[in-house]
Amino acid sequence: MIVHHLGKSQSERIVWLCEELGIPYDLKVYDRDPVTRLAPPNYKALHPIGTAPVITDGDVVLAESGAIIEYIVAKYGKGRLVLAPDHPDFAQFLFWFHFANGTLQPATGRSMILARLKLPDDNPILRAMKGRLDLALGLVEARLAKVDHLAGSEFTTADIMIVFTLTTMRLFLPFDLAPYPAILAYLQRIGRRPAYRRAMQKGDPDMAPLLT
Q1: Which residue, 41, 46, 115, 123, is the most exposed by fewest CB within 10 angstroms?
Q2: Around Cβ 208, how many Cβ atoms within 10 Å?
């Protein structure tokens, strides 16, 4: 299996997952275009969607973070890092796994695009999108004030899904986490995980993870 990692992108999740599971994989790293900061043509050519992440596994070419994580866990993970339906935290696990790219990442992405338009601070659309992001971050903060990991006491793929948005995404949309002490404490716990440190060093050795 080849993990095609675009520097400073959501594909860091897949490198991290492979390191957590301790499974064999080949890592191919691609640099962003120095002017546009977008993926280079050879990365866009990997899959019709043209975005990161992408893996190739034999004849399989798969995109989308959630799909790739579910594929790898199902095929190679032997049930690790996910919760079974009879687990008391199963519903929480499902919610937070999908919340990462269903709610939080879109909120940051829309805010990033609006920020580039240089709209006035009182623009109603800008204010609405900021409100959505604040609400999403507030939900994460409230959850992490009660539990060590998003699903509960156990580290799962829900954590792998969300950390990019709380860290590396801030290179593209700077936002202050000082009002969210539980999130900051959580990121410190994540930063102590050996697999996370290995993944970030392999995928983006020139970048210090934004854990504060």
Answers
A1: 41
A2: 8
